[in-house]
Amino acid sequence: MSMNSVPSGERVHIGIFGRRNAGKSSLINAVTGQKLAVVSDIRGTTTDPVKKAMELLPLGPVVMIDTPGLDDEGELGNERVKKAREILRQTDLALLVIAADSIDDLKVERDLLDEVRSRKMPFLAVVNKGDLIEDVDEKMLENRVAETLGVDGGQVLTVSSESGSGIRELKETIAHLPVKTEERPLIRDLLDTGDLLVLVVPIDSAAPRGRLILPQQQVIRDALDAGAVPVVTRETELTLALSQLAVKPRMVITDSQVFDRVAKEVPEEIPLTSFSILMARYKGDLKTQVEGARAIENLKDGDTVLISEGCTHHRQCEDIGTVKMPAWIRKYTGKDINFAFTSGGEFPEDLTGYALVVHCGGCMLNSREMGFRIARGAASGVPITNYGVMIAYIHGILDRVTFPMLY
Predict the structure, then answer these.
(1) How does residue 51 score in pLDDT terms, banded at 50, 70 and 90?
(2) How confident is the model at residue 153, as a pLDDT?
(3) Span 355-369, pLDDT tens digits
(4) Which of 175, 215, 270, 314, CA to CA, is 20 to 30 A from 240?
(5) Tens digit of each residue's pLDDT (9 = 90 or more) over 91-139
(6) Is 0.85 topped by the overall pTM?
């Protein structure tokens, strides 16, 4: 997989925070060497978080997130500030941008840093527009900001987005911050060189034309990294494929939507799981989500189930989130259940109004954001599970497809 094709959820997320007109967008343009963000002298030009995937050497593939000003005002402004602070949920590294001519009152910045540090997140305070102050002593300026913020002097840098001064040093400093870039296996830790892996990929009206969905691509790549041999088939050819294999497969991995059919065709002695369950293991906490699926037994008439997806896409007539999952849950429980839906970056901080959360695999979310969502469920006392785990439970095969080695 090339650097440019690294999925967003696998990239280091760099959040750019600061007041309106602190120069956040200008800083992004200077760091990237491209005009990725709109720049204006008008305060509050950035009204929503803007993401850009790129390669930032020597750190590697990143997503840079330009956020609205932390000091925005009014009812709409308060919503923008809320959006900006929500970006902390998915931020691996925070850059706090401070205009050099506005360092006398840093209460807004201190408040944000308190939250950053509570999340044990690496950060850097960037004093921008250093060229606006004549005869500036950068070191003295940095020490003053560090003292006001209550941080070490080495956590403050002075730059000028306009002249480019300090930008190279900023990039080098970013690259050496202790960003958590843990290399996590998706499937390869369960495989040995030469293992045969059968992947079941339905091709229906909801399948993306001309390509495979991201979890399927990622499993194939991870299997190849393990030296395994992935064999891909549709569910309609699964029995034929199994009969033609010279050796027994190490494992069968299927799309969760055809779990019932595939489970009947794959012999019990062959381990079986799904792409969605592997994503639950990879991005989140599989045990918590298995426990969450069992909470379907406690649903009552009038309860509301939240179905949440980490991406936004065009809804198909047989969409799994808005059509199939509600139908499966209603049929299994026999209850009059209400459903609510969120997608993309939307996810309630307070889940107490819900009896259960059923989440997608989270392939477009990074582990920090997925961890936040699972933690929100725990804090609210609301069970959370994911599509594959729930489908397996409904079809009575959960124990089979979450075999001990997955934990």
Answers:
(1) confident
(2) 80
(3) 999 999 988 888 888
(4) 215
(5) 999 999 998 888 888 999 999 999 999 988 999 999 986 566 666 678 8
(6) no
